[in-house]
Automatic annotation (TrEMBL):
Cited InterPro entries: Ala_racemase, Ala_racemase_N, PLP-binding_barrel
Record organism: Chryseobacterium taihuense
PANTHER family: ALANINE RACEMASE, LYSINE RACEMASE
Record's keyword terms, sorted: Isomerase, Pyridoxal phosphate
Record-annotated Alanine racemase N-terminal domain positions: 7-225
Membrane-spanning ranges: none
Name under which the protein is recorded: Predicted amino acid racemase
């Protein structure tokens, strides 16, 4: 069975890198764990490293986190559906909000559960995803603070998800100004501006994070060591926290060009083949993973002698050239994965999940010192 592996030592290394970076810049941060899709093994490994504040956009995942670590502050990071108010208050300590009717429902439910529910008001800053318009922010805040059992702990924004709008110093400065206006107008104090995500980290390196931006939500960079802003990697971080391993179930020397009339394949594509390869052969392998489990465009063989040819629903075809690495039936081939590849594999029940390199007692001692 194919499997995806989480290397906890490399994850710990990436965590320590980011934790030091944020400490040096007086920034609080939370881990966005939605990539893990609520998998208990992987969540437990993450919580052994960091259990202060975990964000997710799925209630079932937040429930798993609360079951594993009741003390962890859970954050629901998309505007809640009004009908889910009861579960939001039960499993999320904090939620991101943009609608007064929904916040009223959260208030009513918080009263029933004898809780204070914390919220972050999301502000539209150009990305055109969730967020209230800036002109309405002060009046919106004024209505929210009247609601019992609701505590506004921050304002925030989301960038770079739908339209690819990048954060910059000007946008973040404006958001900080809006916070100050609200505080002066309503004689209040808002603890956090949650305006940072993985794409914002490179602005820290350039000293372009305005004072007042004091909370980040980090997923991709923690798990992949990526510089999302520049579509590159961050030196000193691991990019291979995850890897995919698939088993060879067939290995045969075959023609490089198919024969017969050509139609579209199961994904609706009509493959194009290089006519220069007509009459040539290569060693081809089939592995036990397909497009139900992964997107072949988002993985890459770790061996330089292997090329992905294509995939059907539950098998993937590899070109091994002359099989210089001497692969045989039952051998496994490893693949590096990007964010979308891991997300699809984590959502597949047909891909096993395994932990690699449990954190040592020495590492845990270092971690306790850093925290």
């Amino acid at each position: 069975m194919s499997h995806i592996t989480l290397n906890t030592s490399k994850l710990l290394h990436n965590y320590n890198y980011l934790n030091e970076l944020f400490k040096e810049n007086n920034i609080e941060w939370a881990v966005v764990a939605k990539l893990l899709c609520g998998n208990e093994k992987f969540l437990q490994s993450l919580l052994e490293i960091f259990d202060k504040e975990i964000c997710d956009s799925r209630l079932t995942n937040l429930r798993h986190i609360k079951d594993l670590s009741p003390k962890t502050q859970t954050v629901y990071i998309k505007p809640p559906a009004k009908r889910l108010a009861e579960s939001i208050v039960r499993y999320a300590d904090v939620s991101f909000n943009t609608e007064l009717d929904t916040i009223k429902a959260l208030s009513d439910e918080a009263i029933k559960q004898n809780k204070t529910h914390k919220i972050v008001i999301m502000v539209e800053m150009g990305e055109l995803r969730e967020g209230i318009m800036i002109k309405n922010l002060s009046s919106f805040y004024g209505e929210v603070i009247k609601m019992p059992n609701i505590e506004v702990v921050g304002i925030g924004t989301n960038l770079n998800c739908i339209n690819g709008i990048l954060p910059d110093e000007k946008k973040l400065t404006e958001l900080n100004c809006f916070k100050k206006i609200i505080e002066e107008t309503h004689q209040t104090k808002i603890p956090f501006i949650s305006a940072g995500s993985s794409v914002t980290i490179p602005l820290i390196f350039k000293n372009k994070i305005p004072e007042g931006i004091n909370h980040f939500r980090i997923g991709e960079t923690l798990f992949f060591g990526t510089d999302v802003y520049h579509d590159s990697v961050i030196k000193g971080m691991y990019q291979d926290v995850f890897k995919l391993t698939a088993e060879i179930i067939e290995i045969v020397e075959k023609p490089m060009i198919p024969t017969g009339d050509t139609g579209t394949n199961l994904t609706g594509e009509k493959p194009v083949h290089d006519k220069k390869n007509k009459g040539k052969t290569s060693v081809r392998a089939i592995v036990d993973v397909g497009i139900l489990d992964i997107d072949p465009k988002n993985i890459r063989p770790k061996s330089s002698g292997v090329e992905i040819i294509g995939a059907s629903s539950d098998m993937m075809i590899l070109d091994l050239a002359d099989n210089g690495d001497d692969y045989h039936i039952g051998d496994t081939i490893e693949f590096s994965m990007n964010y979308m590849a891991v997300l699809r594999a984590m959502n597949s029940e047909y891909v096993d999940k395994k932990i690699e390199k449990k954190i040592s007692a020495k590492h845990l001692k270092i971690l306790e010192h850093l925290n």
